[in-house]
Amino acid sequence: MAFLGACQLFRSQFHGEPLVGARAPGRVNLMGGSVDYCHGFVLPMAVNRSTVVVGRIVDGDTCTVVTGAQEIPEDERTVTFKRPSPEAHLERGNPFWTNYIKGVVVAFDGNKGNVPAFEAAIVTDVPLGGGLSSSAALEVATYLFLEQLCPQLHRRSEKERALSCQWAEHNFPRVPCGIMDQFVSLMARERHALLIDCRPPEEGFLVPLDDPDIVILVTNSKVKHDLSKKTEYPLRRQQSFSAAKKLGKVALRDATLEELEAAKDKLSDEEYKRARHVIREIKRTYDSAEALKRRDYEEFGRLMTQSHYSLRDDHQVSCKELDELVRLALEVPGVYGSHLTGGGFGGCTVTLVKSSALQQTMSHIKNGYQQAEFIVSIPSHGAHALDVGKEL
Fold first, then answer.
1. Is 181 assigned a catalytic role?
2. How would DSSP label each residue in 172-230?
């Protein structure tokens, strides 16, 4: 359990008890791949994996943070930095993972000097680089942790928190992400997916997902991606923006397939494919939410699989490992649909499957792809502060 692990890590590192904490879940995107930055619709849900931050205020100006993430080199797991102030702004730097923390500290208070020095321990069971948004879980958990440290400061709305965390990711790790990941980590509810309209002002609409006869199966390819270091993710974003501009639109959300075809000669082949994916995917996502409301899982699964083929062929963010996982899943009777989730280039797939077919599905995938790891998830609740005393 991430909470107990974080408390144990804190005691080991700081020789005392944490006093405040926060938990934020990872997410899986059921539909709407790579359209949130195009003002489209996305349909994620929170998974039952989370990041926990626990800690306490200390005297002085030095913040110390330790992570339990085994993927990070041991000599980079403990870091210190000076709390920000008007005279000494907090800057990005190394180790790289700390930029997610530093960015949120700055987004929270803007270098005004109201954030005290603190000690904090971080533990997560969200797979890093797996396409389940471990980055947003870390940002949101950090933000709520800071709120516990600074109860005197004005509390922002969930949307304002999400936008602050997105700003942090844009400006410190410098990943040009959309709003989906932070939004759902904060606003998710148990037994529901969240249909997010990513056109400002962003809004979320709960969609029931509480049928005990179906299961969400997340399959980790163990091929890690790092969107902060790859050029392909920002390139897809740039190509989508360029296509929208050539179509005379603020965003591809406003374009139709007919307009795209009429302007095809104005676009590069890559711009045309990216735009075709986005326009079709936005409609697929809205239609899939309607299918989910009707419990029409056959239709929902058909749209999921269409989404994967579009992400593979038009958006070109898949890889052979993800394609193989989708192929294996679709071979099993009782599987409705499957596609890659997250930014692509590795990470995970998400599969909608009958509960009665779950074990057969996992066995079949494992036989064909031995390194696969599974998360069987139900829609979980969004981020929240922890009453550390009661939790212990």
1. yes
2. TT-----SHHHHHHHH--TTEEEEEE-SSSPEEEEEE---TTEEEEEEE------TTT-
- Amino acid identity, position 276: R
8 A C-beta contact, residue 254 and residue 242: no
Residue 296 banded pLDDT, cuts 50, 70, 90: very high
Model confidence pLDDT, tens digit, residues 58-82: 999 999 999 999 999 999 999 999 9
CA distances from 129 to 69, 97, 132 (A): 12, 12, 8
**Which pairing describes strands 192-197 and 78-82: parallel, antiparallel, or unpaired?**
unpaired
Instruction: Name the active-site residue from 36, 109, 125, 181.
Output: 181
Q: Report the pLDDT averaged over residues 48-67.
A: 97
| 207-214: long-range contacts, CB 8 A cutoff, minimum separation 24 | 207/43, 207/289, 207/292, 207/293, 208/292, 208/293, 209/45, 209/292, 209/379, 210/379, 211/295, 212/355, 213/354, 213/355, 213/356, 214/297, 214/336, 214/352, 214/353, 214/354, 214/355
pTM of the model: 0.94
Half-sphere exposure of residue 387: CA atoms within 13 angstroms, side-chain side: 3
Q: How far does CA 184 lie from the centroid of its chain? A: 8
| Nearest residue to 37 via CA among 218, 189, 207, 175 | 175
Sheet with 214-220, strands from edge to edge, namely 335-341, 348-354, 214-220, 373-377
Which one-letter DSSP state was computed for residue 380?
B
Could you give the CA distance from residue 216 to residue 229 in angstroms, rounded to a whole number? Answer: 30
Backbone angles phi, psi at 269, to 5 degrees: -60, -40
Query: What does the alpha-carbon distance between residue 103 and residue 172 come to, in Å, rounded to a whole number?
Result: 5
How far the first Cα of the chain sits from its last, in Å, is 12
